[in-house]
Amino acid sequence: MAQVNPTVGDLDGNSGMVVDHARRAHGAGAHLAVFPELMVTGYPVEDLALRNSFVSASVKAVAALAERLAEEGLGELPVGVGYLSRRVGVGERYGQPAGTPQNAFALLYRGRVEVTSAKHHLPNYGVFDEFRHFVPGETLPVVRLHGVDVAFAVCEDLWQGGGPVAAARRARAGLLVTLNASPYERDKDDVRMELCQRRAREMGAAVAYVNMSGGQDELIFDGDSLIVDAEGELVARAPKFEENLFVTDLALPAADDAAAGGSEPRSEEPGEAVDGVRVVRHLHSSEPVAPYAPEPPVLTPRTDPSSDVGEVYRALVVGVRDYARKNGFGSVALALSGGIDSALATTVAVDALGPDRVHVLLLPSKYSSEHSVSDAEDLVKRQGITARTVAIAPIVAAFEQGMTLEGVAAENLQARVRGTLLMGLSNQENHLVLATGNKSELATGYSTLYGDSVGGFAPIKDCWKSLVWELARWRNAEAERAGAVPPIPENSIAKPPSAELRPGQADTDSLPDYDLLDGLLDAYIGTDKGMRELTLDGYDPALVQRIIRMVDKAEYKRRQYPPGPKISSRNFGRDRRLPITNRWTPRT
């Protein structure tokens, strides 16, 4: 199983990745190599699926990939890949995507596309919008490979009962291989393994689950590919958040000819439909492989299940690294205030790209405290990054000569001056600007448009303020365990948070304690609890009403905020879509 990191739209580069890993798999003696969902095109393709030219390019790329594998001496290794195809021979129907695109699977062998099928269950929840982009497949391929019947399915087909899972059980497959592009969320790895174990027991067959790795816009794919046997016991597991060629030897049962109608299957032999899915059997090779000594399986240990903060941190690093790399940015820039948010965002960027590619601006105003400047300078020394200091008070004063601004308007002017300087530096030196706001600020509207919201990517956008502190403490503790200098000054972690836009300002002037606030926000945003439910949970009714009003009024700001790595089950962006113009006021 090749747990790899493709890029959406890079058909040539992704195909080259397949060839490279297939060569390694062949060298390791593999009898089958499989890659993630939509490997050839990258995932998710979103509305690229609706462009006929893109679908055609994908189909041609898969055919060319099969030929290239054979030309490079890899034609005898069956290679399974995900790609974008289209349903042939069926007229378009009302409500279906034009061109009938499909999220498809192909088995490549001896220079040609030997087997094809398409994803049957199309998810349309959370970040997924596949009813918009694809039409469902109606077949499950069962390939007799070295005397073993191997079924192939795509991602959601494993998550949903019935359909391909029921068809694989009825076909008595010895192994179900699933190609996945399953995004990271906190605590999702246990859910995946439990799912694979349950499906294996239901089918009485081993399950091989290959997942994508790397970042694509907001989504992070964490790998965590795994194999369980027919009893649901974990056989092998790949590492998380890294590319990996995962080679595992399996002892699988010989094919049951009775399940194929009493004789060896012929290619493209139709079977009986089960839950809307028709089994199509293919004879690849009926002779079993000669006995050989198996390699011991790899079981990558998981982190301490009581604390997944380290995994969240790694996800943020992957998100920043791949967003910058895949979009052609060699460096990033951000404003460093001495506070915890910019300190954590800077540290993530350094771990993602290296200190020589991280540029920070120190932009003190007349309200900036002495410790904020010194904390920022301390972080610069600890991490060895490039820093420039621009005092913004004279610039703000120049603006104020043209227009008198007071109160919040004057405070926001400071933030917008900082944003203008950051974007000027980006234009001048081609840095990707990182916004440093956290999820608590975005939820409550504590983000100045065209000020601290400027940027192309937002590393901690999906992190509650309380999680920001946890991540900073975890990163410093990791450094201490390794005998290194903690990257974040302790004062940046310990001091009360403040935007420092007026004298003596503190976040608690207008917001409750973050532990209380984040719990309330997570319940309202993450689980859609209403006022009555939140009050029954013990929150003060007046506070609930005030916070809900703040969240709902700030929707227009969130629409204009940069994308950032999704690490929660519901982020601001793909997961949560609410109208900006909205007069509904929750009462229950």
Task: Based on the model shown, name its key terms.
single chain, 588 residues, alpha/beta, eight-stranded mixed sheet, four-stranded mixed sheet, 18 helices, 20 strands, ligase, Rossmann-like_a/b/a_fold, NAD, ATP-binding, Glutamine-dependent NAD(+) synthetase
Question: What can you tell me about this protein's structure?
Answer:
The chain has 588 residues and is an alpha/beta fold. Helix content is 36%, strand content 17%. The chain contains 18 helices and 20 strands. The protein has helices spanning 11-27, 52-71, 130-133, 156-159, 164-170, 188-203, 309-326, 340-353, 370-383, 393-402, 407-429, 439-444, 465-481, 490-494, 514-527, 531-536, 541-553, 555-559, and strands spanning 2-3, 33-34, 79-86, 101-109, 112-118, 139-145, 148-154, 175-180, 206-211, 213-216, 219-222, 226-228, 234-237, 244-245, 269-274, 277-283, 332-335, 358-362, 386-389, 432-433. The strands form 5 sheets. The chain has an 8-stranded mixed β-sheet. Strand 18, helix 9 and strand 19 (386-389) form a beta-alpha-beta unit. Helix 1 runs parallel beside helix 2 (52-71) and helix 8 (340-353) packs across helix 13 (465-481). The chain starts with a strand and ends in a 29-residue tail after the last helix. L-glutamine binds at residues 125, 182, 188. The active site is at residues 37, 119, 155. It catalyses: deamido-NAD(+) + L-glutamine + ATP + H2O = L-glutamate + AMP + diphosphate + NAD(+) + H(+). It comes from Streptomonospora algeriensis. This is Glutamine-dependent NAD(+) synthetase.
